[in-house]
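In response to the reviewer comment on reproducibility (Comment 2.3), we provide here a single inverse folding case reported in full, input and output, so that an independent group could reproduce the run without further information from us. The structure tokens appear first.
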């Protein structure tokens, strides 16, 4: 599943010919960028009703579940709906050979029967703000990357401390557009979250890995939890004295259904997008990184499955880990297939060719003329490292060091044995400076829609 960044949204009108307004939008920008277009398409809410700092709003009902998934508060008593696969780890943790809730399902008939897993939390989004000017005003192009990073991290620590209210809130400062913009996000975490109900795996995981990442899916992919707080509604460690949370806002559920042409909107916690990745980066993923991830994951999955099939207790203990590895395994293979089928890197190269033509003009050449070459050289120097790192990551995610296939074992042996090649690769990788890339990559000219891209390089690599 995706890792978290912020509460963002995408909207569409569900007509026969309508397409979603593609992209991700910051909630703090919807009044300026999106409200008018959304209302033309049928939205009956105002921007203030979706995102408000001073009043309850829709954002208060959309929570992040256990650090990754999106979930929804659907009752005045803290009831939370999320996907079955999002609650999978907690359900597995609560299961035993005698009470296998993962396989057989579970339904609490009252508050007292609800079950508390050891580690599970729900995160509420409080507010966000732009701190780009504050941070970037402290740095300049004459600084080394190390100096720049140290100053930025020091200022980020200040911002997070200033807005935490002595630990009441969790504050994260995130960079966007490869370090050209910075926003801080304020959250409040509740750690007393209890299982209310889950369907059996025959419903919640119907289709298994075969149907995962395929649409349409015919699975009851849901699970139900409840958030608890102290008597004043504040976050509190688990206690029998805690009470169901009275949320600031919850989603009313309509039993009327919907009609063709009704407005629809997705509000949730995506992770990041690699939409702006250049052609060389796509090729690195398709030919080096993702194949290694797929192969290493399959080795780990096969090793786990051999033991899981022999013992039900082992099966329960490893169910969540196996499911997580399988999720990414299917995802990465799907991306290899889709990117290859749609010739995505070729499309990117056409766009880069147009950019290069513009960058070659006398007025632009000095600053932008070598951007594409710098990017291509970076990926060429890190292709083998990407393959190695994804092999290693795939195996570590499985927490098992099974017998490696020849291509993996031999590749790791060669990498470890050839010290000269390793030093050369490390040196060449360090030759490409993040600061230079940030400076030379121009704006795309599009509206800033809250997309976050993976940095082209990072400090210390």
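Designed residues, in position order:
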């Amino acid at each position: 599943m995706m890792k978290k960044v912020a509460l963002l949204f995408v909207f569409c009108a569900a007509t026969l010919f309508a397409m979603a307004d593609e992209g991700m939008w910051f909630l703090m920008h919807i009044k300026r960028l999106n409200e008018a277009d959304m209302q033309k398409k049928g939205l009956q809410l105002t921007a203030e009703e979706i995102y408000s700092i001073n009043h309850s709003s829709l954002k208060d009902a959309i929570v992040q579940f256990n650090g990754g998934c999106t979930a929804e508060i659907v009752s005045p008593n803290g009831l939370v709906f999320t996907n079955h696969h999002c609650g999978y780890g907690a359900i597995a943790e609560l299961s035993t050979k005698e009470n296998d809730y993962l396989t057989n399902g579970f339904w609490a008939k009252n508050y007292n029967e609800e079950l508390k897993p050891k580690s599970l939390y729900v995160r509420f989004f409080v507010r966000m703000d732009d701190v780009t000017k504050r941070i970037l005003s402290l740095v300049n192009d004459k600084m080394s990357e190390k100096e720049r990073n140290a100053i930025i991290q020091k200022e980020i620590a200040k911002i997070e401390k200033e807005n935490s209210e002595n630990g009441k809130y969790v504050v994260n400062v995130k960079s966007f557009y490869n370090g050209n913009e910075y926003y801080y996000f304020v959250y409040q975490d509740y750690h007393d979250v209890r299982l209310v109900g889950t369907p059996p795996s025959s419903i919640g995981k119907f289709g298994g890995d075969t149907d995962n990442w395929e649409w349409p899916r015919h699975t009851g992919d849901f699970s139900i939890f409840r958030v608890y707080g102290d008597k004043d509604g504040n976050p509190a460690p688990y206690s029998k004295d805690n009470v169901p949370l009275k949320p600031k806002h919850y989603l009313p559920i309509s039993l009327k259904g919907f009609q063709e042409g009704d407005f629809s909107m997705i509000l949730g916690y995506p992770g990041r997008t690699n939409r702006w990745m250049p052609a060389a980066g796509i090729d690195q993923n398709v030919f080096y990184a993702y194949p290694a991830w797929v192969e290493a994951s399959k080795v780990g999955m096969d090793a786990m499955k051999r033991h899981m099939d022999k013992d039900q207790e082992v099966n329960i203990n490893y169910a969540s880990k196996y499911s997580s590895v399988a999720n990414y395994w299917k995802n990465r293979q799907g991306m290899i297939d889709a990117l290859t089928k749609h010739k995505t890197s070729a499309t990117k190269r056409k766009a880069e060719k147009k950019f290069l033509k513009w960058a070659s003009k006398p007025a632009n050449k000095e600053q932008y003329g070598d951007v594409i070459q710098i990017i291509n050289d970076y990926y060429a120097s890190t292709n083998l490292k990407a393959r190695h790192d994804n092999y290693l990551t795939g195996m570590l995610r499985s927490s098992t060091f099974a017998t490696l296939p020849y291509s993996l074992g031999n590749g790791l042996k060669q990498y470890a044995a050839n010290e000269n090649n390793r030093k050369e690769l490390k040196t060449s990788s360090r030759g490409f400076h993040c600061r230079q890339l940030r400076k030379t990559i121009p704006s795309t000219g599009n509206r800033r829609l809250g997309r976050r891209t993976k940095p082209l390089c990072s400090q210390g690599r």
